[in-house]
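Here is one chain, start to finish.
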Amino acid sequence: MSPAVPTREPSTARRAVLAGCGIAVPPLEVTNDRLSRVMETDDTWIRERTGIETRYFVEPGTGSSDLGAEAAREALDEAGLEATEVDYIVCATMTPDHYFPGVGTLVQERIGARPVAALDIRQQCAGFAYGLQVVDALIRGGTADNVLLVGTDVHTSLMPFSRRTWEVLLSEDDEDLEPADYEFNTRFRHLVVLFGDAAGAMVFRAGEGGDAGILGSELHGDGANKDILYVPGVGSAARPFVDAEMIERADSVPVMDGRQVFKLAVTRMPKVTRRLLETGGYTLDDLDLLDMHQAHLRINEAAQRALGLDDARVHNNIQRYGNTTSATLPLCFYQAPAAGKAEPGSPVAFTAAGAALHRGSML
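Its structure:
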């Protein structure tokens, strides 16, 4: 028989303290001009509407678990922690390698961690924010001492591109795409120009007292807003789960009401951030950095104005990476210090909004 596992007594003094952060960005840079090879768009059209200049795609055969494991290794190195010392893994993704199993156990195996609990969560663009709350609960409650949080997404797996489209998009030669493919791709240009692939990871350790660590959270979800951003097919509401006709109709491609997404994001992210700060006894003046989900530069600029924050207290990198969904918050946080932001000890808030209007902020 295995020895009994000792239980840890919950303590209000325990806090989840950030020990390390890591990222993984794939090698294939796809500029706006390159996208114009396969759909009716150009650099000016994309920049003016989204602020995005380029993004990075994985090579064929690379899954979310591969990027997640790469980011996790860097985070563990920075934390000075061996993978065998991790006692819980939380993984946020909307693009798992397989329908099942989840990505968490695949990351666990790839980094050489013990067969510890591995939890996959699915809140799309708000996934990493939700993951931070889960980490906080695990450590505060005494369930775990060293928790690995991973946000990883490979959006290229969702793009409705034919094999020929991919050949033309990634070719170093000037090739023309057949008109039928070009017209089909153009139907979805408002979506596909937004996304890139990436992963980010953070390692948290249990700390006692002090002001360091996760201080609070304010998270919400609202299914009444499902129709503004969702995938109509490929799910249990359909029978069969997926078929050729569904793919041909592009029911596997997200439907997005851009105006409504914009309107709700620019109001709800500031609102939930203010509420979080007030609940914790803080004000916006106490905040050194607001790390916002990188879905759309115009959304973030509007949210920044609504909160009255200057550029020194906001960091955006969507211009370079596009929307990487659950990876945006750690990717942005990882790079903020290079811009002179988020120095050690700085009060930082994370905020995000996504499908089904999952939204929230963490301090």
